[in-house]
Amino acid sequence: MRRLILLRHTKSDWPNGMVDRDRPLAKRGRRAAPLMGRVLIERDFVPDKVLVSTAQRTVETWALASAGLIRFPPATPEPRIYEAAPHVLANVIRETSDEVRTLLLVGHNPGIEALAYDLIAEGQADLRQRLSRKYPTGGLAVIDCAIDRWTQLARGCGTLVAFVAPCDLDPEAE
Question: For the chain, which terminal residue's Cβ has fewer other Cβ atoms within 10 angstroms, N or C?
Fold first, then answer.
């Protein structure tokens, strides 16, 4: 069994003249990111490895989510996550060492959402339905994959264990 955690960056801003990769977090995003980090700790969804897109908003999301929480490993920047299609994300995951039992990716839509849809075949019906309606900024999906090695990652191998959005924790944070 392997656990995959997919975190979509929190709410970003788009200042005039700024390229997409350099977009910072908006005030709501800065408020939401620490909430998502606390969810990981409180529910014992602590990753062994963290891969983060190199976009500014994902780097900021993880920095704020993990700030002061010593149980998290240092993040590894992964440029292939930026604007990646689900099959690219799956290939990045398949390269993960077998020593890693729980992997967290911090990335973007539509790739993160599409990957979750591809992997999830089981799980609590209301959580699956909620995820299918919207994968909001800051959304966090925890998927247990019925595989022994990351190289075995395949469509339908996962069970949705949890799906949490910032608005579940603070209505002003989404």
Answer: N
